[in-house]
Specification:
InterPro entries: His_Pase_superF_clade-1, His_PPase_superfam, Phosphogly_mut1. It catalyses: (2R)-2-phosphoglycerate = (2R)-3-phosphoglycerate. This protein has about 250 residues and is an alpha/beta fold. It has a domain of about 170 residues: Rossmann fold. Helix 6 packs across helix 7. The longest helix is centred in the middle third of the chain and has 21 residues. Bound molecules: 2-phosphoglyceric acid (2PG). The site of 2-phosphoglyceric acid has 11 residues, from helix 7.
């Protein structure tokens, strides 16, 4: 028995377009991002996959991407579960800053440490910042534990318990699960699934809008490597993410 998992990073957002660090700031998709959502639905439908349950973060760029994909695939009636545990990595005091300006100001080493190191979080975001999520009602269940910054290690620590408690339960019931989330929350899940080292995960980038499909065994680990439904576009998309800030 194998289980089918589809991972999908949201389409391009307003702040991807503007080249700003985003994190937990709730920005919407661009028109191009909406087209990516629809294209993801076409790819899912063409592959014969039929998602039975959708998991998303609490951020609209993921929610809208999933809605567009499922509408296009004629599966928008399936059950939906949302959790902050699938949110993008909280980018701390970098949220709202321009990536190219940050690179120029702090240099490549510091910039890449903040973006891709495993366990060095950016400086904390002040609670009175316009980009803080403290007090946002959608995170009421977190109380005062709303993140002020996170590194990838922190994301793994808050995402994996949800994978184990909820997502794998749906997989175990034989449901094809679609998880629509973010560059860094999906890097956290891919690190776990592909058993990637803390050092090597720095080189892994997830492209926007292209479904990544895993067949999992009884231990909910892959029996074959994950496959992008459009491998060529995925490679180009991942390279573009890697180069962000350097334009
Ligand atoms: O800004 C962000 O929240 C993320 C994803 O867009 O950026 P990065 O790829 O630099 O981690």
């Amino acid at each position: 028995m194998t289980y089918t998992l589809i991972l999908l990073r949201h389409g391009r957002s307003d702040w991807n377009e503007k080249n700003l660090f985003t994190g937990w700031v709730d920005v919407d998709l661009t028109e191009e991002g909406r087209a990516e959502g629809r294209r993801a639905g076409e790819l899912i439908a063409a592959s014969g996959l039929q998602p039975d349950v959708l998991y998303t973060s609490r951020l609209k760029r993921a929610i809208h991407t999933a809605n567009l994909a499922l509408e296009t695939a004629d599966r928008d009636w399936i059950d939906v579960k949302r959790s902050w545990r699938l949110n993008e990595r909280h980018y701390g005091a970098l949220q709202g800053l321009d990536k190219a300006e940050t690179l120029a100001k702090y240099g490549e080493e510091q910039f890449m440490t903040w973006r891709r190191s495993f366990d060095t979080p950016p400086p904390v975001l002040a609670d009175d910042s316009e980009f803080s999520q403290v007090g946002d009602p959608r995170y009421a269940d977190l109380g005062n534990d709303v993140p002020r910054t996170e590194c990838l290690k922190d994301v793994i620590e808050r995402m994996l318990p949800y994978w184990e408690s909820d997502i794998t339960k749906d997989l175990a019931a034989g449901r094809t699960v679609l998880v629509t989330a973010h560059g860094n929350s999906l890097r956290a899940l891919v690190k776990h699934l592909d058993n990637i080292s803390d050092a090597d995960i720095a080189g892994v980038n997830i492209p926007t809008g292209i479904p990544l499909v895993y067949e999992l065994g009884d231990d909910f680990m892959p029996v074959t490597p994950g496959q992008y439904l459009d491998p060529e576009a995925a490679a180009a998309g991942a390279a573009a993410v890697a180069a962000q800030g350097k334009k």
